[in-house]
User: What shape does this take?
Amino acid sequence: QVRLVESGGGLVQPGGSLRLSCAASGSIFRINTMDWYRQAPGKQRDLVATITTRGSTTYTDSVKGRFTISRDNTKNTVYLQMNSLKPEDTAVYYCGADLVHYGYAWGQGTQVTVSS
Assistant: This one.
């Protein structure tokens, strides 16, 4: 079994910063891409950022220049550094991972609220 545990969510003021982390544990052979998704109230779950095994990154347009995804392969951990946060960034953020010989795994989600 593979488990993804997220942390780092919370309440932050507009313009502030937050860093999310997600650590994978269990029966892991190798992790391909690792992703961050988010789901705002009343909206669908959208892909925010993706990072490959070698560190190539992709971002949705609304977060480009503000968010940075990174990973530490020795720790099976993915991070999302969020800067210049806006109220519209408020959502539950989920990490996901494409694992070799396993499939796709999801974290439980962590709440990010951007408000004065």
